[in-house]
Amino acid sequence: MSLDRLRIGFIPLADAAIPIVAADVGFAAEEGFQIELSREVSWSNIRDRLVLGHFDAAHLLAPVAIATSLGLAGMKATLSAPLALGLNGNAFTLSPFLHDELVAHLAPGAALSDPLATGAAFASLVRARHGRGDEPPTLGMTFPFSTHNYQLRLWLDAAGLIPDQDVRLAVVPPPYMVDALQNGHVDGFCVGAPWNAVAVDLGLGRILHLGVELVRRCPEKVLAVRSGLLDGEPERIEALVRACVRAAAWIDDPANRHETARILGAEDRLDLPATLIRRTLDSRLATGWRDEVRNSDNLLLFGRDGATRPDPRHARWLHAQMARWGQAPASTAASDAAAALYRTDIYDKALGAAPPALPDDALELFTG
Amino acid sequence: MRIGDHANLLERIYAIDPDVILIDLADPSRDVLEQMFQMSRAVRRPVGMFVDQTDSASIEASVEAGVSAYVVDGLRKERVKPILDMTISRFNAFSRLRSELEQAKSQLEERKTVDRAKGILMRTRKIGEEEAYGLLRKVAMNEKKKISEIAQSVITAAELLA
Questions:
Q1: Closest by Cβ to B31, choosing from A42, A51, A75
Q2: Tens digit of pLDDT for each residue in A96-147?
Q3: What local confidence, expressed as pLDDT, does residue B2 receive?
Q4: What is the tens place of the pLDDT at every residue in A309-343?
Q5: What is the pLDDT of residues A249-266, one digit of tens each?
Q6: Distance (Å, rounded) from C-alpha A250 to C-alpha A28?
């Protein structure tokens, strides 16, 4: 008897680990199905292939899933997110030139890990450039509907800059981000792991901030499915949720880090050195600035602290960012529609677990 | 124009102001196009999509999602012209349908507004339906406005006074 097969698209990023491990370590097989993974190059492709039915599920930016359901851009289709693929994992990286310029504007005694201090320094350098008639910096982010876009804007906004006027924000898909920094298309970027570490290793960039320094519990990717598939064959998706939650617990076990890094590094997965991916799993990143190393136990959360259970408050926050930056109507109806994507009911049913107690603050922003 | 490298793609697209956009589903520069659609809502262009696999469900889904042409198997030189023509003509037909639908929807909304305003007038002035409508029409003619606009003012005023 051949096993049921689910096709899942992913972008080469560390937070694609959950479906990759579910497929490669046998958690899917335990649930009686097979995962066929397909590596994609851009977020619009992965979204469209999900919408068109080429995929049954996808590793998708949470805001893309929301925007697609609200019909804000590109294709419109009703999607659901029965599982979050962890939290956090992003970082800001600047070219050594821009990093030096920022450090020169930093207030005496201010810490480079303090986003308010670096924001003020960045605002000061942007104004200095403007005063000299120089070009503003160009910062890369992964998609108009991405936490990378919103994290950069959160930082710029808190520093009193107007993102759409004072800097240039350019879209670059994650696997091309380091190239874009190398060829000078961008002067810095916000992208998910492990691409910041890649830029540091090549000497092309320095990490300015870990994403967690701005947002302690930041929504990132979800496992997105077409709502039609979820309603029609809920048991297939519930089996997928179970396999993924087990995979996340397996990844969390420090004894499995070596193997996780090896699996993710494979040619048909992220196609990067396992040692480099390992640094993200160990939550220790060299920033490339002198011999500084930043660490955080929250650098990238897979299964710990309820990270896989979709939190509708995250969806509402993402909708609020879309509304803040003119991408979505600021209506309660749109916020409700965004929250409705996060199917905690399916998650809880799949695991046969009662809804857990949630932290009071779903996000913990640096702006308070 | 064929989009080869992504540097300054946005500026180039703005400068060229294309009549049609053809998308190769596997091209990474697509995300940059999405940024353009975001920055300029007014940009509505026919979109043709080239894909490497298909089934009837995918085609149906692409039509529902507003793709003007869903083309299976690669971009071959001799096929491009007819595909371009088809993409544009389908987009135009779809746009026409959409504007007709929007018109029908707004007419329905206007009728609802007028009905509500009539109800308010009938209750507050103790008059019949025809008389209420006649009143709205008279004011609209005097002020050179649409009946639905006057009706909206009646509703707003009633809400403020309630």
A1: A42
A2: 999 999 999 999 999 999 999 999 999 999 999 999 999 999 999 999 999 9
A3: 47
A4: 999 999 999 999 999 999 999 999 999 999 999 99
A5: 999 999 999 999 999 999
A6: 13
Nearest C-alpha in A relative to B49: A48
CATH number for the domain spanning A150: value is 3.40.190.10
Given B60, B75, B90, the domain boundary residue is: B75
Give the up-direction half-sphere exposure of residue B70: CA atoms within 13 A in the CB hemisphere.
Answer: 20
Report yes or no: A327 at the B interface, CB cutoff 8 Å.
yes
- A181: nearest CA in chain B? B7
Please name the amino acid found at residue A199.
A
Question: Out of A41, A76, A144, whose CB is closest to B35?
Answer: A144
- Residue A325 touches chain B, beta carbons under 8 Å: no
pLDDT of residue B29: 72
**pLDDT for residue B6:** 52
Q: Does the distance separating the beta carbons of B28 and A175 come in below 8 Å?
A: yes
Whether residue A328 sits in one domain with residue A244: yes
Contact list, A138 vs chain B (CB under 8 Å): none
The total of structural domains in chain B comes to 2
pLDDT at A84: 98
Instruction: State whether A94 and A173 are in the same domain.
Output: yes
- The answer to whether residues A24 and A261 touch, using CB atoms and an 8 Å cutoff, is no
Asked if the structure places residue B61 within a domain, the reply is yes
Which structure tokens are listed for A50?
């999900």
CA angle A192, A197, A199 (to 5 degrees): 100
Q: A112 and A157 in one domain? A: yes
- Residue B51: give the domain boundaries: 9-75
Q: Is A335 helix (H, G, I), strand (E, B) or coil?
A: helix
**Domain assignment present for B2:** no
Record: contact A176-B64, CB cut-off 8 A? no
The secondary element (H helix, E strand) that includes residue A57 is strand A57-61
- Domain membership of residue A138 as a residue range: 90-213
**Nearest residue in chain B measured CA to CA from A185:** B7
